[in-house]
Amino acid sequence: MDDFLFYGIICLLAFLISVLTDKRRLWNGILLTASGLFVLLGFTGIILSGPLHQLDQLILFSLLILAAVTPLVLITIAVYLIKNARDLVRKEGKRMSNLLSLCLSIAVFLFLILVALTIYTVDPLWVSMTLYAGFYGFLFVSYLVSSFLYRFNRPSQNKSYIIVLGAGLLKGKEISPLLASRLDRACHFYEMQKKVAPPPKIIVTGGRGEDELISEAEAMRGYLLDQHIPAQQIILEDKATNTMENFQYSKSLFQDPAAPSVFVTNHYHLFRASLYARQSGIEGDGIGSPTTWYYLPNAYTREFLALIEMYKWVHVGLLIVFVIVSALLL
């Protein structure tokens, strides 16, 4: 059992090296989550392998309580996700994109059923399916950890550009509360830097959707002007249709490709956007703006699915390995 503690320490050291090297890595969350699990297993093994002293008995009792309530916690989370999906549909409309938290709730219930079948039958097929589902549960938790850690990023106020990522407009031309929060965050950074250094240019990026009367960038420019940002400090990028294009087209507007920059989006989108920024050759980190609480479970679920899509061939490979291993076990 000492091996588990050793693995936990190794994962923790690897996490520290990884996060200091680059904060924009899913591996940061994977390593930190794995470290916590290994340490928990290690201490459990140490307690069970020797005589139980009073403190050991207390710790073991706490671990048993934790193991017992975990299914109840998962059921509570699943029920909350159902309620959250209902609230989101009522407030935002009945669209498939607003039902992802409901899908996540169903996935939690299916996982609990898989665990129960595995314990009851100890069948290799159910075991392998439970491990496969558990891996993606672990990956989802790791993503949330990575996303949470990246929120603590605090870029220095010496930037040449602030890139504000666009979002859909209301009634084809009006700034949504979600997009307004991004612009307000950009204005705050602009005003803070203006006190200590030359003010940055603000690049508003977003094209015109099929149901929009003007481009997102044009609407964003109008909002910034209303917030008393000088017109000469605002740069329009009105062709981008997705996050990758937001960064690629914005970078093409830099006078110096290596100019220091920062991008602004909502907290839930911050981590995945940072991956696109890195792929686009933008070294600047991001800063997040707040989002209405009821929107978050659905938004984080969507971000996780989008992250899987970014590396879909890796996950296709994992599925193939799972099928082959399962076939060999049967």
TrEMBL record:
The name of this protein is Uncharacterized SAM-binding protein YcdF (DUF218 family)
Question: The DUF218 domain covers which part of the protein?
Answer: 161-308
Its lineage reads:
Bacteria, Bacillati, Bacillota, Bacilli, Bacillales
Q: Origin organism of this chain? A: Shouchella xiaoxiensis
InterPro entries xrefs: Cell_Envelope_Assoc, DUF218, Rossmann-like_a/b/a_fold
The residue ranges crossing the membrane are 6-22, 29-52, 58-82, 102-120, 126-150, 310-329
Q: Which domain of life is it from?
A: Bacteria
Alphabetically ordered keywords of this record: Membrane, Transmembrane, Transmembrane helix
